[in-house]
Amino acid sequence: MTRYDDNTEREQWEIDADTWDRYYYEMEVGKFIQYHAGRNMELKKVQLLKGGYAQQDEELTRRTEEAGRKGLLTWERHDEIWTVQMMFSGVRRDGSETPVIVLADVNLAAGSENLDRAVNRAGILASIVSEEVIPAVICESISPERKRETEEKGVTVIVAKRKRPPPQY
Question: pLDDT tens for residues 128-137?
Answer without folding.
Answer: 888 899 999 9
